[in-house]
């Protein structure tokens, strides 16, 4: 039998679901503002985005700390089952993000956060962490955001947000299903972190000659980076040369993975761009500690905030160079920068960075081992990303009642 639906202000929902406002479910309070000297030590402190990027907070992951008198903290405690909302954000996508606190530590919340304390038992606590991230709720909150530079939302706005409320037993079933897939995502995150640590340890051994692959011997040469690599100087001006279909900006390179997240095209208003070719190594020189690098698999252009590094063919292979620029030692050298607010790597420093270099055949063998590890990491990350996409689809189905679990 097909379940019956009814039309509401937030769309079609099952007939046995209710619609109410957050104001009937939660009592809202603004957070604590303290002197600068109070921050950095003391009790756990939830403020700004972190850790509200998570839908459920348990305590150990809270990085912030604040030291205030116990009596002053009482008014700003976050108790189990309380919900915290991002009050302000630079982007709409982060405005009003909510998370339910399920820990047992004494935690307080700051002025960039609004606390919602349950005044009704209509929402299951674990379910609420998922439900408050449903598209129907997020669209309402984002539309209420105010501010030219930073988006802000207040208690009165949150009180008006409409929420679909399934029966309690269905809420628990939905929360359990989504918790199961969260556990899978967490397990994949842990496995990826472990594999990355193993690769870093292997890099430290193979790229320094401490461990040699079978069949290779002999002393490695010490080279400076400038002896092995040349920065490509080719530039184009899109305002004169027209549109280039494949352009990489810094935001298109994922930190520490060596992967690109997307690309764009240049236009008549684009700034000067660097040209790269298949096999070139792209390295983000702005804030080098972000570890933004990519081995180009095609021709294109990129931001001038990205170095285009060309290996000297007789000295170093592209694949081996790509592994070298991922090492902590190279990142440290590249982080010796100029500029305080926008630190950029200095080629005059980096070109003098010294490292040991084996023969080309040994480079090929080492790079093949490390590339295989990279491929395994990429496959695991793709599996995790697919699982996250599945979770989003499940949320859309379960939190609107299109798919019923009971």
How would you describe what is shown here?
The protein is an alpha+beta fold and 406 residues long. Helices cover 33% and strands 24% of the residues. It contains 12 helices and 27 strands. It is elongated, with a radius of gyration of 26 Å. The mean pLDDT is 93.
Please give a handful of descriptors for the protein shown:
406 residues, alpha+beta, Adenine-n6-DNA-methyltransferase TaqI, Chain A, domain 2, 2 domains, five-stranded mixed beta sheet, 27 strands, 24% strand, elongated
Sheet with the most strands: spatial strand order: 4-13-9-11-6
Uncertain segments = none
CATH class of the largest domain reads: Alpha Beta
Overall geometry comes to elongated
CATH topology of the largest domain: Adenine-n6-DNA-methyltransferase TaqI, Chain A, domain 2
Largest sheet: 5 strands, mixed
CATH superfamily of the largest domain: DNA methylase specificity domains
Distance between the termini: 13 Å
Count of the domains? 2
Q: How many helical stretches?
A: 12
Integer-rounded radius of gyration = 26 Å
Structural class: alpha+beta
